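TL;DR need structure tokens for one chain.
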Amino acid sequence: MRYISTRGQAPPLDFSDVLLAGLAGDGGLYLPQSWPHFTTAELRALAGLAYPQLAARIMAPFVGRALSFERLSALCDAAWRGFGHPAVCPLRQADTRIFLLDLTRGPTLAFKDMAMQLLARLFDHVLAERDTSITIIGATSGDTGAAAVAAIAGRARARIVMLHPQGRVSAVQRRQMTTQLAPNVTNLAVAGTFDDCQDLVKAMFGDPDLRAGLGLSAVNSINWARVLAQVPYYVAAALALGGPDRPVAFAVPTGNFGNVLAGWIAQRIGLPVARLIVGANSNDILARFLSANDMSLAPVTPTLSPSMDIQVSSNFERLLYVLLDEDPAATARTIGQFRATGRMPVPEAAWRRATQDFAGFALDDEGTLQVMAAHHLATGELIDPHTAVGLAAARARAPVDDSVPVIALETAHPAKFPEAVADATGIHPALPPGLADLFDRPERCTTVANDLAAVTALVRAAAKEPL
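>> reply
TL;DR here they are.
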């Protein structure tokens, strides 16, 4: 399996090289040169497998010869062994038609653990094979950073520097990062937004000397392996509800477009997906695009669902490349215009193709609190603000055919956002026992200006720390 850049100016790479590279050298994102396909019979045969076994079978064609199937299976088994449910990501019914896919059973209580725990082990395997080390840099709106730091802390061949927007993540999200005191972990609080953090990371990847000198790599969903590791839970959920012999729909609270893109990949390789519903908060650029072909920037608005407080969704470039008939020049030109003008000129025909698979829905903070309160009243369950957005999107944009079940992704534990949950329900959710002392742990974090030179200097210093 070979991978190519969406912008066409980087050499094709195999899976291991893409894993370590993260972002392509031309600034683009990697996609498979050709797409695997699973027949209905092949998908049907996956039903009943334990989650790690199913995941290894789904991922194997994308990994190619980079890892043996036996090794991939072992890494998958190790990645999810410690999750808090034997099914890893169990389904439960929210109402007569809508189901919640629980992705919160990992060490940091968010869906990012599903991919990050595997990604860390993939790094270990490839780096040991090559007898080398890397410096990971990443940007987070909250959950990615916590999951990445938890997965990479203490690893023998990787350092990690994680940027988060100062004051724009929840206290639990922040402390899950900053209380990781392993010497290979550096946390930077940037005076800016998540989009600013993401731009700083991309700028550092765009410096070839810095990239080569520090061995930079990525854990954000710009890294193909991160997105790939999320595809299996779409397949597992669909099979649990009768797939592939009936279609299902998914509703996904969405910020950087990586999670819902994994659902699109599942559809592309053969899973019958009737609709992918993109749930947004007041930062509604993706919902506006899907409803009116309006991909235009607006200021980032802080909300109760901070992991979705994003205007520039990096992973959209992967979908855009396919919508533009896999034309790398057109993709690069369109992204360039977006950066220059704040508006993305997507041709009408390409936009209409997007709306065949995707629908969008936006919900403000008041509506989010109402959904959280109503769900608690109806079920006795607490949900976090991001999941509430996904649940509302599922109800608002469900396919007309009511025989199609809708799976809303539960992306974070309510205890990660206790103030919002308490405002909605009057109940302050407690952290699980393993994190009960989180607010008593010492923190380590450096505050830095939204300045490339200043951030780069701190990354260079971190890269010199001994492993």
